[in-house]
Amino acid sequence: MDAQAQDKGVLEFGAFRIDTARRHLTCNGVRIKITPRLFETLSYFAANAGRIVEKDELMQAVWGGRIVEDANLSQTIFALRKMLRDEGGLGEAILTEPGRGYRFVLPVRREAAGPLPQLRESSLSVADAGQAGPRAAAVRDMPAIPDRTIPATPAARGSMRRLLPVVVVALALGAAGAGALALHVRHPAPPAEAAFAPPPHSVAVLAFANMTGDPAREYFSDGLAEELIQTLGAIQPLRVAARVSAFSFKGTPATAAEIGRKLNVGAILEGAIRRDGTDMRISVSLIDTVNGFALWTHSFDHAASDDPLRVESNIAAAVATAVRADLSVGAVEKAIAGGTHNAAAFDAYLAGATELQWLDIQHDRAAIADFRKAIGLDPTYALPYAGLAAAEVSQFMFADAGEAANLQLLLARAREDADRAIALQPGLAEAHREKARVLEAALDMRGAAAEMARAHDLAPGNTVILEDYGALLAAIGHADAAIAAGREAVSLDPLGARTFRRLGNIYWSTRHYAEAIVTLQLADAMDTHPSPIKRLALAEAYLANGQPEQALPLCEPIEVWDAHVCLAIAYHALGRSTDAERQLQLVHKELGDDGAFMYAQIHAQWGEPEAALHWLEVAYRLHDSGLNELRSSPYLAPIRDTGGFKDIERRLDFPP
């Protein structure tokens, strides 16, 4: 063995636990026997999770810098992926970065080494992994994913399975040979852990500490930090971690170095807000995650009547300067445009933005009240108009499908508010995003695509806009650009289950079903608030991938209309025609013609093209908002080449 794993304590991910001091690997408390070479490689990947490990670096760390054939490295990665999938039910934990190396994408928890738990010896080792049955039901029928990011053809996957015994024997012989050489060759000392090299100009804004003594003011401390995330994200060339990932460290003892590695950022901005009567003090520090030193520290005494934009712009400018970003003239002023000089209006806006994150009708109503209060205090404040549009689009999504007049009123209000925000501040990315969402709901896909592209141009580092941009690109059929946007969002939000779930949906919409399954499994594993309805996306990925037996148990406990579509298609594919028909009739009884787009998808999957096209016509006549998925829904694939489908697509005027 060329390089002993350094004692990095215990590394945990999924059900796996690596004790680097004792050189033990366990899964759900069961000891896994793997070769020393595989243990070294897996330990190194886990210790450097989230960043690209280049091939030369891996060769030096694991093979001691000796010349190693690329095939040997690929075989090692292949065996690791196989073991992680079969033993722990994990998807593609090790991604290939073409031309550079590999990246371990699962969240890794670290702790100091302690007493070993009582272990049970596993009967499985890598040497017989090819013959053992998988332990994780969720992926037992999932095809092996080869050493590349594009799924292999069925023939290629079969060839790789046949090669597995050869690969394992080669690895075993390689390990034995290395052990024999160790008797005669003096190897260099183990290399130090590779230096952390985050992207330039990268920063994470952590949740600010609320030190006011009033828990009800939590919205202000969180809201100010979130506003800074949006502001900094709009400044080029800064790279800013998303809110969900950055706020996930709230209340934890994580160090700057740990946060930096998990988020892949070079600096973190932390702050605290204190109150003295009607005045507040905002204290902020920018910490270098590589060496732990403070790059910049400052306190702002903020009176109730002070200009909030002044504080925000000062912090943003100082952060950009400290991380050595070359700013264009007016970059900071442009980023904070759409704000207000009225402190009370700013406070009301932050309260509304906090309510909006709950994503339900009651909180939407509370958000609308706060946004209107902010506008009453400052009628020229653009952001609360964009907030109103967001809340109204959210209400549209939650509204009863039978309330046609109310639905149209909500869309009309949302468009009016988005237009007002744009009129007040044409460069406000959030306003263009909300107008795009309104236009998409109104089936103006060409207009929606133009507005979302404008939002992305204005704030390419805004994770929420990236997610929506990718989803809209997928809806209009621009698969490669959609996937690129979704993956960029994940890179900025590596701990956000929602962002992974939206990337999974993009893969589903663009026919990359194997990638969709892997990504959605990761999202479910990461989610701190799991629920059956969130797993519907995974069920649909299984269904589109021709695995109705995996989809069925995920759909059955869910009481939403999309779940009935899933069940109708899954039951039919499994030969349970009576159960399938019952699901269709259930939706018909409750929704009538308002469920037209759902019926079209079901009949298309049942092999009934005439019925499917009939219901698409009904959906078009009723202006069913589900038609925004006309191009992207995998369920409509059987009728996509028919003249009737192409005629409806032409009338909807999708962009090219």
Question: Can you walk me through this structure?
Answer:
Strand 1 and strand 2 form a beta hairpin. This protein has 26 helices and 15 strands. The chain is of the alpha/beta class and 656 residues long. The strands form 3 sheets. A 6-stranded mixed sheet has the order 8-1-2-3-4-9, with helices on one face. Strands 10, 11, 12, 13, 14 and 15 form a 6-stranded mixed sheet that branches. Strands 5-7-6 form a 3-stranded antiparallel sheet. The chain has 5 domains: 10-181, Arc Repressor Mutant, subunit A, CATH 1.10.10.10; 202-336, ABC-type transport auxiliary lipoprotein component (Rossmann fold, 3-Layer(aba) Sandwich), CATH 3.40.50; 342-459, Tetratricopeptide repeat domain (Serine Threonine Protein Phosphatase 5, Tetratricopeptide repeat, Alpha Horseshoe), CATH 1.25.40.10; 478-528, Alpha Horseshoe (Serine Threonine Protein Phosphatase 5, Tetratricopeptide repeat); 531-656, Serine Threonine Protein Phosphatase 5, Tetratricopeptide repeat.
Task: Jot down its keywords.
Rossmann fold; Arc Repressor Mutant, subunit A; Serine Threonine Protein Phosphatase 5, Tetratricopeptide repeat; six-stranded mixed beta sheet; about 10% strand
